[in-house]
């Protein structure tokens, strides 16, 4: 305990030496509570004993402040007596009698001449005795010594200047003395002989740790212990004792040391010894916890003490290392201080702190934390709680946000306010677990029927009801929205939600007219983004448009992820996907997934993962689609998905089928799905996925039944969306498996008439199905056209299937060289896509021996091209037009045409369609 106290110990030895030489003095050992004053005083007493001093000791006590001559009474046992006064018992009687007389006349230091005689006699005896043996009078806790004893002590001190008497006192700077005037006068007599005990530095704490642990501690441990103790010797020693008892130091993930029982017990005893003002300031500082940093005025207002007293106390606590930047050194210290208070007092403190911070304009979250700790929400706090909840939800702290909303709900002023808070609770809980949050829907339905739910609340409730498959109730809630209840912005959002309902659950609002724009106006000039999205969704069955794509991108740019924007985001991504702007959709999905992670919103993450899975499947990456779909299903429970479980489930089944994992797909189909799913688009996806599983397993008739069920559903909805469920194409493949080419051709040709003229993934898939129904000689042209479209739209898996069909047709027509190259390319693409089923099917057709010799000639041909010609050949093989190549390479169209002429001659090909077959996998990123 004498680390960094060598200077003070040396000063004690100097004082003893000066006293022996006949220089009497007063030595004051000062410092905060628990700074080691008593330990230093004991060390001085030990040195004095070894040096042959007579020692008289006494200690002030809080409980004896009002007991006259309490300290003098303690001295009696140690006083050296002369021959004139050999009777200790008689002396004790005289002191006791003087104390009693003084107790009856408070305020008088010398109530009668007897005490004066006693003082003079005792002082003379001490001075005489000191001539033979030097004397040390040691007094601990001087601030608690009763006034009459202080007066007696001063009487003696004024007479020891040339005596061999040393008076050593230990006094704290955080406790109000029993008599401030006498106390100050005594310390003035010690001028020039003060030993201040400051907090330990980091070096000192390190020395104590090294001594206790038997080895040099790491810098991180020293730093953590210094911060946790504030350098206070008592807290440092108890902290080290806790570490030793725990079997060694352990730092948590924040790099902090965890104190134990000795630390907290010492701190509690410390608080018990403090005066009321100090306890109040400590409690206020512990309550604020440094958030925000509290100054003396704020602490004084919270503690309800005088500002000047608070300033003095705070300065002393800071010098003692017990408060830094307005906070106690460790969470355990803060809790120990608060544990000393009755629960009702802590609650009252939190309420006062919340109101104080609110009036000071503090951050709403700081106000809300105190209200949450108090468990009450006064009327003035409603606005602050609302802002705090928004901040917590934005930061992903859902649990405290829900707790605040419940607090606000319990303190709501009326039914309408409670209804609005129920909606907020639904939205907050929905982020984590829709199924668990669904228990609020029955309450909110009752509130809505009672007319106590506003339009914005009805929107939220309707969306949640629809998600969980309670579609009839969702329509009922929406029907309750009147125009008078809504502003223009909310009306736009309602139109968007209505359009989304019509898109996802087409049969639900079949009697309602779609949200159409006035004649002559395009989506670019609609009043708002939600209006434009609604219009695009309503007209999506007619085919995607560039204006719709633009609206979707604008919506994503202007819609930060939140519960309110989720419908707009889902609609925008859906539009991009069905317009085959998959790269753009993928970039936005990844960005939004990152945001959902920071918001700690599993339900949002689940929806975005399902979208990511669909994009991966549409771009021919079934392995990635499988991983994302599985992650989506794992993010929330099957109950929380509701009917929408058909979305990730269908993608996962199709991914398994594409990879030849039929057993895994079959197990997924064994699990029950909600009946309400078949009233939604997700039901179409599920039927298509199940039909694909049946078709891959050789059950063509069962597959055809599912595909025609898709037809029945869409017909009942009076809606045809081949970009979602191209049932005609799927049914055509089933008919071909059943050896019914005429039916297959009729379906394929019918599908072509339903599609817009622009190239699309569905058009390519339809051409591939049609190729299976026409005479052999006509197949290659249809399949090459399909392959060109697929190269442009990026569906590598469907391209691999198309090339496999093309290779088979070429082989049947006797064009073995082209067939080998085409099959080789299909095989490589299937490998890139991890489409194991297709790869296994093509493996027998891959002839490595023939490929080796041919590959050498193809490699030589490719090597004969210049760098510029190779770049043009690559882009041409990918399906780029001459103008697109010219733009990409920053050359003229004429230059591209010249390069192509030379490329055809060197590679011995007649047209650009043969470039891919000729060069095959040697051209990177062909797909």
Automatic annotation (TrEMBL):
Q: Which domain of life is it from?
A: Bacteria
Q: Which residues form the HTH luxR-type domain?
A: 858-923
* A Pfam entry, by short name: GerE
- PROSITE patterns (UniProt xref): HTH_LUXR_2
Which GO biological process categories is it annotated with?
Answer: regulation of DNA-templated transcription
What keywords tag this UniProt record?
Answer: ATP-binding, Nucleotide-binding
Q: Name one GO cellular component term.
A: cytoplasm
Single GO MF descriptor: DNA binding
User: InterPro entries attached here?
Assistant: AAA_16 (IPR041664), P-loop_NTPase (IPR027417), Sig_transdc_resp-reg_C-effctor (IPR016032), TPR-like_helical_dom_sf (IPR011990), Tscrpt_reg_LuxR_C (IPR000792), WH-like_DNA-bd_sf (IPR036388)
Q: What is this protein called?
A: HTH luxR-type domain-containing protein
Q: Which organism is it from?
A: Actinoplanes awajinensis subsp. mycoplanecinus
């Amino acid at each position: 305990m004498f680390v960094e106290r060598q200077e003070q110990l040396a000063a004690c030895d100097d004082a003893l030496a000066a006293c022996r030489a006949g220089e009497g003095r007063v030595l004051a050992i000062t410092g905060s509570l628990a700074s080691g004053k008593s330990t230093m005083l004991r060390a001085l007493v030990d040195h004095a004993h070894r040096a042959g001093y007579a020692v008289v000791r006494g200690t002030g006590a809080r409980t004896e402040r009002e007991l006259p001559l309490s300290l003098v009474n303690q001295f009696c046992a140690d006083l050296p007596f002369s021959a004139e006064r050999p009777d200790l018992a008689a002396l004790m009687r005289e002191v006791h009698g003087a104390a009693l007389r003084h107790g009856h006349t408070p305020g008088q230091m010398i109530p009668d001449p007897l005490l004066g005689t006693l003082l003079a006699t005792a002082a003379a005896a001490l001075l005489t005795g000191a001539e033979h043996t030097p004397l040390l009078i040691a007094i601990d806790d001087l601030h608690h010594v009763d006034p009459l004893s202080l007066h007696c002590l001063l009487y003696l001190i004024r007479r020891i200047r040339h005596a061999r008497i040393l008076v050593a006192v230990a006094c704290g700077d955080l406790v109000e003395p029993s008599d401030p005037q006498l106390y100050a006068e005594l310390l003035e007599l010690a001028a020039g002989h003060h030993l201040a005990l400051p907090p330990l530095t980091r070096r000192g704490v390190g020395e104590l740790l090294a001594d206790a642990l038997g080895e040099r501690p790491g810098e991180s441990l020293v730093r953590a212990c210094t911060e946790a103790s504030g350098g206070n010797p008592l807290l440092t020693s108890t902290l080290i004792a806790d570490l030793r008892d725990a079997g060694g130091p352990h730092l948590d993930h924040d790099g902090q040391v965890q104190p134990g029982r000795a630390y907290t017990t010492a701190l509690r005893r410390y608080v018990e010894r403090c005066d009321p003002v100090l306890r109040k300031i400590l409690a206020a500082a512990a309550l604020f916890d440094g958030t925000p940093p509290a100054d003396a005025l704020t602490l004084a207002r919270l503690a309800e003490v005088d500002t000047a007293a608070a300033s003095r106390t705070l300065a002393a606590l800071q010098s003692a290392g017990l408060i830094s930047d307005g906070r106690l050194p460790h969470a355990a210290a803060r809790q120990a201080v608060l544990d000393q208070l009755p629960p009702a007092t802590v609650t009252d403190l939190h309420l006062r702190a919340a109101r104080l911070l609110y009036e000071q304009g503090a951050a709403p979250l700081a106000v809300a934390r105190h209200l949450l700790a108090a468990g009450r929400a006064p009327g003035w706090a409603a606005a602050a709680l609302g802002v705090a909840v928004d901040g917590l939800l934005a930061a992903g702290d859902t649990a405290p946000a829900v707790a605040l909303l419940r607090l606000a709900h319990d303190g709501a002023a009326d039914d309408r306010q409670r209804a609005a808070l129920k909606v907020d609770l639904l939205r907050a809980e929905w982020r984590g677990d829709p199924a668990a949050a669904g228990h609020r829907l029955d309450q909110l339905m009752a509130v809505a029927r009672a007319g106590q739910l506003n339009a914005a609340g009805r929107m939220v409730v309707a969306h949640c009801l629809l998600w969980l498959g309670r579609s009839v109730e969702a329509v009922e809630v929406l029907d309750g929205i009147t125009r008078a209840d809504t502003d223009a912005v909310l009306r736009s959002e309602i139109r968007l939600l209505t359009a989304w309902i019509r898109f996802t659950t087409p049969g639900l609002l079949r009697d309602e007219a779609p949200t159409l724009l006035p004649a002559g106006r395009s989506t670019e000039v609609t009043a708002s983004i939600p209006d434009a999205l609604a219009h695009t969704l309503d007209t999506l069955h007619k085919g995607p448009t560039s204006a719709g794509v633009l609206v979707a991108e604008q919506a994503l740019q202007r819609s930060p992820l939140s519960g309110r924007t989720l419908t707009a985001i889902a609609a925008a991504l859906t539009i991009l996907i069905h317009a085959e702007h998959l790269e753009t959709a993928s970039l936005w999905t990844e960005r939004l997934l990152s945001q959902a992670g920071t918001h700690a919103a599993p339900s949002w993450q689940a929806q975005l993962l399902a979208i990511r899975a669909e994009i991966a499947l549409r771009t021919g990456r079934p392995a990635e689609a499988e991983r994302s779909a599985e992650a989506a299903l794992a993010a929330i429970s099957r109950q929380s998905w509701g009917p929408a479980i058909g979305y990730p489930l269908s993608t996962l089944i199709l991914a398994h089928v594409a990879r030849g994992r039929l057993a895994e797909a079959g197990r997924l189909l064994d699990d029950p799905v909600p009946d309400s799913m078949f009233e939604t688009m997700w039901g179409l996806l599920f039927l298509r996925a199940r039909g694909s599983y049946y078709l891959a397993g050789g059950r063509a008739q069962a597959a055809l039944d599912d595909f025609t069920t898709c037809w029945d559903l869409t017909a009942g909805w009076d809606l045809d969306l081949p970009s979602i469920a191209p049932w005609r194409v799927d049914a055509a493949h089933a008919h071909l498996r059943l050896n019914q080419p005429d039916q297959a051709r009729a379906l394929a040709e019918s599908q072509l008439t339903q599609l817009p003229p622009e190239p699309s993934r569905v058009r390519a898939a339809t051409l591939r199905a049609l190729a299976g129904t026409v005479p052999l000689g006509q197949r290659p042209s249809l399949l090459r056209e399909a392959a060109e479209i697929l190269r442009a739209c990026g569906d590598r898996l469907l391209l691999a299937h198309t090339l496999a069909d093309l290779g088979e047709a070429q082989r049947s027509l006797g064009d073995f060289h082209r067939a080998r190259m085409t099959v080789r390319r299909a095989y490589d693409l299937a490998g890139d896509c991890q489409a194991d089923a297709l790869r296994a099917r093509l493996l027998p057709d891959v002839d490595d021996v023939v490929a080796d010799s041919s590959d050498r000639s193809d490699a030589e041909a490719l090597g004969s091209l210049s760098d510029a010609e190779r770049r043009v050949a690559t882009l041409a093989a990918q399906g780029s037009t001459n103008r697109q190549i010219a733009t990409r390479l920053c050359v003229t169209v004429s230059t591209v045409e010249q390069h192509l002429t030379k490329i055809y001659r060197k590679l011995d090909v007649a047209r650009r369609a043969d470039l891919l077959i000729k060069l095959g996998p040697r051209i990177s990123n062909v797909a």
